[in-house]
């Protein structure tokens, strides 16, 4: 493997349009992008593409395994923001190494968003 940068994170939901709107509120720095040739909208957050896709029989929405953790400058502020847009605290907050904290927030479809800072 030559490049180890995360390119995209797929989030499976039952309502893509509603989830795009929610994630834009959750990540106000996100830039909405559109691939016309594929009729596909996604959010760009720095160098990571956040791709909201339909859940199906192969991949349901909800907490089921891997969780992506976003590094935040102000942990308490980030948690408060996520809760203010309709996220719910799922796990934590926990104290971790070097004076940092971490937690998981669930989106309205049950997916977990990790925060670390």
Automatic annotation (TrEMBL):
InterPro entries according to UniProt: Glyas_Bleomycin-R_OHBP_Dase (IPR029068), Glyas_Fos-R_dOase_dom (IPR004360), VOC_core (IPR037523)
Domain VOC: residue ranges: 5-117
Protein name as annotated: VOC family protein
Organism: Pseudochrobactrum kiredjianiae
